[in-house]
Amino acid sequence: MPVDRRAACLDFAQRHLAGRQLTIEVASADASFRRYWRVREADASWIVMDAPPVQEDVQPWLDIGARLRRVGLHTPQVHAADADRGFVLMEDLGTRTYLPELNDASVDRLYGDALDALLRMQRDADAGGLPVFDATRTIPEMDLLGPWFFERHLGLTPSCIEQAFRRIAASADEQPRCFMHRDYHSRNLLLTQGAPTAPAAALANPGIIDFQGAMLGPVAYDLASLLRDCYIAWPIERVDAWVESYRQRLVAAGIVTVDAAHFRQWFDMIGLQRHIKVLGIFCRLCYRDGKASYLADLPRVLDYVLDVTRRYLGLIDFTDLLERAVEGRDITRPLTADSTTA
């Protein structure tokens, strides 16, 4: 008989919270097989991660969370874990993700906190033993574009994209590598109510989640994830200012030595790599996993891709391919048997 994961999560929480009488409700589900449950008693609440062991391993989450907490970043404090069953009982960081909180008045303050945390992560977090994010990973990620975005979503067979992918991967491999969260954006950063328990110099905000995929990767990757977010866009003049200000902090920290133009190219190219991957992933989430809501974000991601490729002459053929492929198409609509292609 299949295990009732909801009931098992509640039992796990009750056993580790001294028999409290708890209620349980769905907190969130992400793009993987993980689910998160919120358990409550009166005014107190906790989160239980439910990661079925057949599909997910909680050990990376536990390991990376501990590394970040050791350098004073606010990841959820772990109260109990059962790796064999795939359960983790943790601090509840609340529901105030950055995305709905961001506006013209708040963005400098919120991004200021996020960039402070990012610098600490890149400068201080232990990246020992993390997998390396290099061309053996950047190119396969971009290869998702062909089968999922072009073929499954647009009904087209792409050609001549490998040269663009190699150019983008080469730029990524040129960058200094450091601790890389890999999904450092507005849905994985939270405004929290309380301060983390340790260490004493810890940053209360942002609360940081979804860090289990951390790698040793290009220095501009997480910066691009934050400032060229798949879920919210900012005027390019503001992005330019944030990028240059952060570059200067990286130079002061001894992490990079390049000038503004060179660093901006790194930022553009690694952001392009990420957004090419995301075009494929969002379509895969729709057609393979039944999560069609991700298609609503495709136009913004595609705009980012085209904005960058139009700036670089070496990517002109790739730009032309994309523009011809989407001309006259509503890319927020799934491709069906009676759909027409451009």
Which range does the strand content fall in? 5-15%
Number of helices: 12
- Averaged pLDDT, please? 92
Spatial sequence of strands, sheet with the most strands: 1-2-3-5-4
List key phrases describing it.
9 strands; 342 residues; two-stranded antiparallel ribbon; alpha+beta
Walk me through what this model shows:
- With 342 residues, the chain is an alpha+beta fold.
- The protein has twelve helices and nine strands.
- The chain has a five-stranded antiparallel sheet with strand order 1-2-3-5-4, covered by helices on one side.
- Strand 4 and strand 5 form a beta hairpin.
- Helix 5 (135-142) packs antiparallel against helix 7, helix 6 (145-154) crosses helix 10 (260-287) and helix 9 (236-252) packs across helix 10 (260-287).
- The termini are far apart.
Question: What layout of secondary structure does this protein have?
Answer:
Blueprint: H1 5-16, E1 23-29, E2 35-41, E3 44-50, H2 59-70, E4 78-82, E5 87-91, H3 98-101, H4 107-124, H5 135-142, H6 145-154, H7 162-174, E6 177-180, E7 189-190, E8 207-208, E9 215-218, H8 221-227, H9 236-252, H10 260-287, H11 298-309, H12 316-326
Antiparallel strand pairs: 1-2, 2-3, 3-5, 4-5, 6-9, 7-8
Helix pairs in contact: 5-7, 5-10, 6-10, 7-10, 8-10, 9-10, 10-11
Question: How is this structure best summarized?
Answer:
The protein has 342 residues and is of the alpha+beta class. Helices cover 44% and strands 13% of the residues. The strands form three sheets. A five-stranded antiparallel β-sheet has the order 1-2-3-5-4, with helices on one face. Strands 6-9 form a two-stranded antiparallel sheet. A two-stranded antiparallel sheet has the order 7-8.
